[in-house]
Amino acid sequence: MANRTVKDAKSIKGQNPQHLIEKIIRSRVYDCRYWKEECFALTAELLVDKAIELRAIGGVFGGNIQPTNFVCLVLKMLQIQPEKDIIIEFIKNEEFKYVRALGAYYMRLTGTSQDIYKYMEPLLNDYRKLRMMNREGQYVVITMDEFIDNLLREERYLDVILPRIQKRHVLEESNELDPRVCVLDEDLEASDSSEEEEKPKKPAREAERRRSRSRSPRPKKDRELDRRRRDKERDRERDNRDKRRRSPERSKRRSRSTSPSGRHRSQREIDHRRKSDKSKRDKERDRDRDREKDRDRRHKDSRRDKDSSNVDQEVAEANALRAKLGLPPLK
Fold first, then answer.
1. Dihedral sign, Cα of residue 150, residue 154, residue 159, residue 162
2. How far apart are CA 60 and CA 141, in angstroms?
3. Residue 158: in which H helix or E strand, if any?
4. According to the UniProt entry, which residue ranges have a biased composition of type Basic and acidic residues (predicted)?
């Protein structure tokens, strides 16, 4: 009795609404725990609370064909057959995305072609993510617009055969449906207007391009003369460079620099510079050592003074205490 369709339910596509779902899946739904515990004696008002608790969509999963909560609620809606206004409110609900998905799926199963295109096509602008359970029992992520597009195009979705609907262009030709207005039309119009504004600039660019193309290349004879001129300049620079290298002043300077006296003189200067640098380093090292000794001496003196002051203070305190007790002072 709990699995029967309500008495005043209307037939859909000439058959019992529950028969839109195949018998094997329907029997699995009747045997599952969610149907027996959560969907028993469920009304249209209580169905909203169950739809809000949904956390995923899907058909059946696993090797033993276990139904999801989504399919159980779809079958319950086919059984009780809620009013059309309730389904429209499900679809227009923007706060709970799984409630919207449930209403869209039920509308695809039971609605007419005009209602399906009228109420489901606006959902193609909803890009929120949905969690869907596949046949292996794993969760995958899809978007709401992808879910709606599959409902409008596929013949079987979420393990349920979807009823056939008329093509959209047929309904438009028979004036039963208004032409679809795409959201991207505004962006296309804006881009067209911007292209029209840029059109006056294009002729100028085209004219420049044509002018550059119209320039004839230089004759071959002129190019050959330029090449010869560059070769002559390169040879002249090479000759001047060789002459500078072979000049007598340069050879004298080279011989002077390589003489033994010059070599000894430069070596003596180098040795003298090394000795002076070494003496400077020794002086700096001695100065640093003296500074460290002075610093250590001052530190030891300050520590000794501090210790002596502490001892004197302790002796004074002890003498004061002994004076109060009537004892002789310490030496």
1. positive
2. 17
3. none
4. 198-209, 219-242, 267-295
Is the entire prediction scored with pTM above 0.70? Answer: no
| Structure tokens that stand for 47 in this block | 């169905």
Q: Which of 70, 62, 31, 29 is nearest to 157 (CA)?
A: 70
- DSSP labels for 296-330? HHHHHHHHHHHHHHHHHHHHHHHHHHHHHHTPPPP
Q: Each residue's pLDDT tens digit in the chain (331 positions)? A: 478 888 888 888 888 999 999 999 999 999 999 999 999 888 888 999 999 999 999 999 988 889 999 999 999 999 999 999 999 999 999 999 999 999 999 999 999 999 999 999 999 999 999 999 999 999 999 999 999 999 999 999 999 999 999 998 999 898 888 888 776 666 666 676 666 665 555 555 666 666 555 555 556 667 777 778 888 888 888 888 777 776 655 555 555 544 444 444 567 777 777 888 888 888 888 888 888 888 888 888 877 777 777 777 777 888 887 777 777 776 6
C-alpha span between 9 and 19 (Å, rounded): 13
Phi then psi dihedrals of residue 129, to 5 deg: -85, 145
Q: What residue segments make up the domains of the chain, in order of their start?
A: 17-185, 272-331
Tokens of 28: 């699995």
126 token code pair: 């909803």
